[in-house]
Specification:
The chain is of the alpha+beta class. About 35% of the residues lie in helices and about 25% in strands. Strand 5 (about 70-75) and strand 6 (about 80-85) form a beta hairpin. The longest helix has 30 residues, at about 315-345.
């Protein structure tokens, strides 16, 4: 085993595949733990493999997202290539499924949501992953989810190394168009994520080879068994999310990862009332992936109960029901006290007045989506490009939204915002490619074919 790569001291080998080995190492200059992905010497001799490996490093180096592995450095040493990247202590989804069989539906939805957020980020930047599968999804011990291995990703910044008519990926997770070797876009990744979500919910893949038909034949031509037939306790809303991911035709799937993110957020808002990272930590503890001490360390700050064991009550649903009931009772008591105060303080026949100089301002939330992207301005204030990181909080009432794109005439929309929580924002979606008007002298961008309609 190698002892050093650059300024990193190798500690141990943590994984090995057909073309690469992954080591855990210490970066001496910063005293931090890193992972080093080393291309095997035999693979380095293949020019197209070494080119893909270097492109993976360059693509990842330009990405900064909480759900994507970060790259720190790239080296050519000892006749091979090395990528120095973020080290994530935890378990990959492949091993977690092997341990648990299938996941609770809320845990599966949380994992899918984090991966969908990573896909939304890379698709916006013209990258298609092309290899979404459990082995490439890491669950950190602190409850985070990381998308890994961009070795066969297609980045529009580079020439595609895949020949036309050639399918590339892991067969059981490939989309129909990927199997056929057709030109693919971001919706192919959504199909693959649908396969992963199906597997998390049922414990099995939707398309499995048998004596009569190959897995590729089934993906292209056969309908999957509905998830509720295999797991009747699943909510129908989640089944519909899976089914839309697994549509054979790309045009019938979710129009973008952002649409899938919003659907999963709406679903989870009804079933999970604690921090999503905390929910994953609790599940990892139940599966003995982490210890009780680690769970207490990670979860207590997240759920706001310092010093109290997160596992003191094993039934998380019971805790949520109890919290909901306490909230309802507190709200009812507050309303009753307010009414009593108004009766005693306000003269009969007159409406109670608000304190001098104060006015109750009701607010709501707005989520803006634009395709392929847009600069967002609301009521004359510029907020930046889509995708925006979170729903925008605004006063209830009329607002004017202007969406600008360098290729199209700006689109202006007026809305009447209603009051509501951040979990259920008002949504404004604008598709420039479908409804927009090109500016004079502009031609439709060549990349548009590979992006979502």
């Amino acid at each position: 085993m190698l002892e050093r790569i650059g300024n990193c001291r190798i500690v141990e080998e943590v994984a090995s595949g057909g073309m690469a080995v992954v080591y855990r190492a210490i970066q001496d200059s910063l005293g931090r733990t890193v992972a080093i992905k080393a291309l095997k010497t035999s693979a380095s001799a293949e020019e197209h493999i070494s080119t893909r490996f270097e492109r993976e490093a360059k693509s990842l180096a330009n990405l900064q997202h909480e759900n994507i592995i970060s790259v720190y450095d790239f080296h050519r040493e000892h006749g091979s290539l090395f990528i120095v990247m973020e080290y994530v202590a935890g378990i990959d989804l492949y091993d977690l499924l092997d341990r648990s069989g299938r996941l609770p539906f809320d845990v599966a939805a949380i994992v899918a949501l984090q991966v969908a957020r990573a896909l939304d980020y890379i698709h916006y930047r013209g990258i298609v992953h092309r290899d979404i599968k459990p082995a490439n999804i890491m669950i950190a011990r602190q409850g985070g989810v990381k998308l890994m291995d961009f070795g066969i990703a297609r980045d529009r910044s580079f020439e595609d190394l895949t020949e036309v008519g050639t399918g590339i990926g892991t067969p059981a997770y490939m989309s129909p168009e990927q199997i056929l070797g057709d030109k693919i876009d971001a919706r192919s990744d959504l199909f693959s994520l649908g396969v992963v979500l199906y597997q998390m919910l049922t414990g099995g893949k939707p398309f499995v080879e048998d004596e009569q038909r190959s897995v590729m034949h089934k993906i292209r031509l056969e309908r999957h068994v509905r998830v509720r037939k295999l797991n009747p306790d699943l909510p129908r809303e989640l089944e519909r999310i899976v089914d839309k991911c697994l549509e054979k035709q790309p045009r019938d799937r979710w129009r973008s990862a952002q649409h899938l993110v919003m659907a999963l957020e709406r679903f989870l808002a009804k079933y999970v009332e604690i921090n999503y990272h905390a929910r994953l930590v609790l599940f990892l503890r139940n599966q003995n992936v982490i210890t009780q001490l680690e769970a207490d360390e990670y979860v207590s700050p997240l759920v706001g109960v310092p010093g109290q064991s997160a596992m003191g009550q094993p039934n998380i649903t019971a805790r949520l029901v109890g919290r909901r009931a306490a909230t309802v009772h507190a709200a009812m008591l507050g309303v009753l006290l307010l009414m009593l105060g108004l009766i005693h303080l306000a003269p009969l026949g007159e409406a109670p007045l608000a304190p001098a100089g104060q006015a109750a301002i009701r607010t709501g939330y707005l989520r803006v989506a634009a395709y392929p992207w847009a600069e967002v301005t609301i009521d004359g204030k510029h907020l930046g490009p889509t995708p925006l990181p979170a729903p925008i909080r605004l006063p209830v009432g009329p607002h004017t939204i202007v969406l600008a794109h360098e290729w199209y005439v700006p689109i202006e929309r007026s809305i009447e915002l209603e009051s509501g929580p951040a979990e259920r924002p008002t949504e404004l979606v604008v598709d420039f490619e479908d409804k927009g008007t090109l500016l004079p002298g502009k031609e439709r961008p060549p990349e548009t074919e590979d992006q979502l309609p």
